[in-house]
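hi!! sorry for the late reply, been swamped w classes. u asked for the two structures so here they r. pasted raw, havent cleaned anything up. first the sequence of the first protein and right below it the tokens
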Amino acid sequence: MTSMQTTVNQELGLPADLLIIDADTHLTEPRDLWTSRAPAKYADRVPRVEVIDGRNTWVFDGAIVGGAGTSAVVDRAGNKHLGLSFASMSYDDIQPAAFDIHERVTLMDQLGIWAQIIYPNTFGFGGQKFVEQQDEVLRLLTVQIFNDASAEMQSDTNNRLFGMVILPWWDVKASVAEIRRCHAMGMRGVNCGTGPHVIGLPDLGQPHWDPLWDVCAELSMPVNFHIGASTDTMSWFGSSPWPSHDSNTKLAIGSAMMYLSNASVMANLIYGGVLERHPTVQFVSVESGIGWIPFFLQSLDYQQMQSTPGTFGTRYSLTPSEYFRRQMHACFWFEEAGVAEAVATLGDTNVMFETDYPHPTCLYPDSVTIASNAVRSLPEISRRRVMSDNAIRLYNLPVPATKR
């Protein structure tokens, strides 16, 4: 327990020893994440950082993936860069906590945060870009190395940082095997891509994926859908901004619309019968915010009766709102107005807090102030759940014995 954690909890109106959990952050992959772990025969083919045209660049089996370090917006002096100015920064420019796990824990102590759930960067927020590698053996190896590194990160930080399992999602049998392997290493949840149908596979509502949901139910592994986790939704800009806008405006519009991409995931999971057939699997809408969800669920409830008459009680035993409260969760960060009302509608066991560090819209360094403004009007039990208990329960986090 740090003095900052005591201060943070005091501002939130919570007990001094309550552990604040940040349910969505990202780690800029270290330069040697893959090269330091690859078998010798693949050491020159796995993802690596090379200097190309004077810029650190991720290269995978000879193909350029993208700039290295450009997902972090906080520089080494602790300044947050706004707009697209962050895109020119690399490892030498960004705050070490963006890519160094021990520096990250130090920063968490300074911010009063006990644990963070970690999502990737380079290959998409759901690992969707791994599919672009044509060598299936190398593709699977690269995913497994990433998961090995995540398990090591959890162990090396004494259960402060928790990576979610990246799936070899192009192969459902391999995905099931990887979930079992990673669960045995102590990992706590699954990071699932949202668009297998985009590359010609069955969509996630089809029975093809039932073995995936079955193993998640068996092992109590929550399934996380991060925004931008499909090959057709991962662009910073997306297709929403009009062509006449400048790049910063396109970033603003594209980022705001990306949150709503999870509305499609939510609707399709529910109407696809996934929650009906797998009533114990827990799903998380990550980095989508929560203010829009009550209206959207009300719309799904209405459309269930108006557009699919006769399905309630036959195809579906619950309304979409009821499915959400039973099996779905969502995270908020920059929202202040309307959070209490959304929590009341969605259920105070269905909402978690996040910061999105170190991405462009992250809460830094004022995360606690914004969070306290958002949850201040909630009853203490609801504040406890949203800021701590829900994430601990959902991900079965191994908190210190004094907190059990």
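now the second protein. again sequence first, tokens right under
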Amino acid sequence: MSGSIDREWQRFTPGHRVLRYGVYLATAVAFGLALRHIEVVPEFLADTPTQVADLLVRMWPVDWTFLVSTVIGAMVETVHIATLGTLATLVIAFPVGVLAARNIVANPAVRFGAKLLLVASRSVNSLVWALFFVAVFGPGALAGTVAITCRSIGFVGKLLGEALEEAAPGPVEAMTAVGAPWPSVFLKGYWPQVKPAFFSIALLRWDINVRESSVLGLVGAGGIGLVLDSAINVFQWRAVAAILMAILAIVLLAEVAVTAIRKRVL
């Protein structure tokens, strides 16, 4: 009978340990290169607390007159941009998301085209979309609305397509077996399963769009961002404080509204 062989358990193999240390080293090198190329000036970092304190002093007291006369109207326009952009997104993203679902569309070329459109929408930041449409339509709320729409299509369509792919096949197969037409199969088999997810996605995207539309005005796409950019350019820091408070308030209200709607409706 051969003698027993003592074995020591190790969590990682030598190859795994080398790979982990390689990843750590690559991360450290990438961090060092990034820090070097952005040219951080230590003197500016040391002076940051003083500059921030001075800026806060200039922002106080808040210009409430400016808030009532200008900011409220701009915030209303911001909400309109987010709302119209979200509604347009739902109209466009719904069919694209359906075409991207592999359990609904069998043609791989059609699915590839739909997914390519969704990826293209998500890959471009909303500010870049806004810059493009400001050049097309000119400064204003229209450019912001179209930018919000183009940015949101990929988000809504991708999540809807994934929800459709995760739908239980049982009801769909039963309706198909009895000869139901495809519209009935979709409305009675797929839609009841994905409807809660779809409306949750829509509410979440509207919440995100309220936040994003608040800064689109920095590139001329309307809304509160346009007023904020103008106030910063002329160093009206008390007005800037009023704008920032209004943005914070509308973001919090949007979050509360979305949460309440989800609890009561979904």
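hope this helps!! also noticed smth abt the second:
Residues 60-265 form a domain with the MetI-like fold fold (CATH 1.10.3720.10).
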